[in-house]
Predict the 3D structure of the following.
Amino acid sequence: MRQLYFDYNATTPIAPSVQQALLPFLSDHFGNPSSSHVLGRAAHEALEDARGHLANFLGCDPDEIVFTGGGSESNNLALKGVAFRRGRAAGGHLIISAVEHPSVIEPARFLERLGYDVTVVPVTAQGVVQPAAIRQALRPETLLVSVMLANNETGAIQPLSQIAEICRAENVPLHTDAAQAAGKIRTQVDELGVDLLTLAGHKMYAPKGVGALYVRQGIALEPVLHGAGHEAGLRAGTENVAFIAALGAAASLAGKSLDVSQERLQNLRDRLVELLREGAGEPLVVHSEATPRLPNTLSISFPRAAGHEILARIPELCASTRSACHRETQAISPTLAAMRVTSEVARGTIRLSLGWYTTEDEVERAASLLLGAWEAVTG
């Protein structure tokens, strides 16, 4: 059975050139990057080369890149790092949006249990944070605002540059979780106006277990992991040189192909929607359709059926009914709940996310299978 992979927002395969970049550091170049001998220097050079690739990708200084173990660690370092460094004595107030990834929501809730205040700003029916809601939520004692760049379920892109203007006027740092957006749309930090930005390797054709946090110069963080002072003292532990080299290669690759990939994926996604709507013969709901979205992401609801029942009839189709960061249950996803989607529409939702290796033939095959399964379920 030939698998049709439409779950690129959950994870991506490692690109061949990215795999080639990491292999030498699993064998010949095994030195510790903190060692001063020739093998250590080779590892250190690889580390700094990757830092440079990430800096070019984000439009920042290499010294502003901190390597981590993944997107969740980067988000934890951003929120806890700011909160612990400035402390509750400074007011202890943070703002997040209602559609954040659990790796932002849960650190915020953890800080709340420690006595910090957390404001969760709502989103529109299209899943978009209104800049005015951020302005209204700000307090003199606000330590940090965290709003994702693009939603992992619907693909909705947030108006970060407008939010950044508001935060900058009040001298409040802005963090964005760009794990889902990086490599799909532009993520230049000065264009976005952010002070902290999260990347995850496995969302951009690098391995799982590696990520990065951009930290604008002048932003002070308390480390979450304490130790021997790696990564400018912000992330203790010997760096994972092989995976970091892969992340650097992935960033370089994504930067070179961004414009072409973006147009191609949007065309394929729109073709998929067209085929599904033509074949269904009745209205299908596309979540966040009326707002800018990631070019590869389609969150679509089939009427009179449950998304998980449709997918259960198509074992060759790899897709999901919600974000992979949530356990598969029949409960409405927090993102759709925040958008005030009805339970019936949420029930029929399937997320289809395309990637570099998706073909037009696969799009047509996926549409045919989905329609056939939907018809079988609805009788």
About this structure: The chain is about 40% helix and 15% strand. The first strand starts at residue 4 and ends at 5.
